[in-house]
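This part of the workshop introduces the protein records we will be handling. Each record describes a single protein and holds just a pair of labelled lines. Instead of coordinates, the fold is spelled out as a row of discrete tokens. To make this concrete, we reproduce a full record directly below:
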Amino acid sequence: MELLVTTEDLDPFPKQSLSIHNKPMGLLTSNYKSVVNSNYRNLDEKSLFVKRQSIKGCFYNTNCAAEVTLKVSLFLVIFLIMYL
């Protein structure tokens, strides 16, 4: 039995050199993006938009008690089936 060691590069594709590409700025210019970001950060806490966003955040961050119970019970059932 023999061991054959090769030192050839078996990669069929030639290695490409690094090239620098200019990335497109997209549909919105960077000046417009900076104005929008600064306006979004400096919102008044009493505005309707801020209140709506905080309500949406509460809905996305909280889970229903039934949902949590179902997930935990399903996990426990699968865990018991696998290890018992």
